[in-house]
Amino acid sequence: MNVLGVVGPSESGKTTLVERLVDRLTERGSVATVKRMTHAPDIDTEGKDTARHRAGGAAATYGLTDDDGWFATGTERTLDATLDDLAPDYDYAVVEGYSDAAIPQVVLGDRDHAGPALATAPDADGVDVDAVLDALAETDPHVTLETLVERVKRAPEAERAGAIATFTGRVRAKDAPDDEPTEYLEFEKYEGVAEEKMAALSADLEGREGVLDVRMHHRTGVIEYGEDIVFVVVLAGHRGEAFRTVEDGIDRLKDEVPVFKKEVTVEEEFWVHDRE
Q1: Is the model's pTM score more than 0.90?
Q2: Which class does domain 145-275 fall in?
């Protein structure tokens, strides 16, 4: 799922620009939107909302109807968690108002922003939507393990599959109790070559007897302690070939795909390949 933010002052036309972007993106795939709310909205479906459930102590509540959709209320919902939930089902997410999010952004009115700016303009009227969409297509997608699992479940040969095996690599704090804690890792890839190598590796693994589909993804940029780094998902006829292929897949990805890792601890930072 490609993610695009829109940030700017209240009179800069953010919502109008979101409407224009969504209208164009729906020609390319399914779109979800997320908006930062400065206050809790009034949610009431004919007096039968979930306020009493919340008052009773529920941390999250959902209201479902047969015909008119659904709504939800809750607390402590982060943007990252929301994007993780949307990623398996949508091709695009347009996010309004999160200037502190490290996502690709359209920046209006010189608003401060954390993510890379795909376009800047005084207001929404000055934005070239076509140029923004072209730039968005070049950004890294937001991929979760669930995203890849859903993709292999929809593979043409999924009816022959009796197993899905997965591997998730994550940032650990330390190898041994006395090690200096790792604050974060930073990954860079050899642009173009890394994607080609990963695609070739997936195709080679899919050529094995009983293996039906293989999906891989390696994040780049800064990844903090506890966050996920890399995923390998294998769809296979039986668990044996699924497990073997997942193990071979992550081992070969680390050996063959040019992705470089910098480790930052509380004491130092270094590129890992310089010490191997």
Answers
A1: no
A2: alpha beta
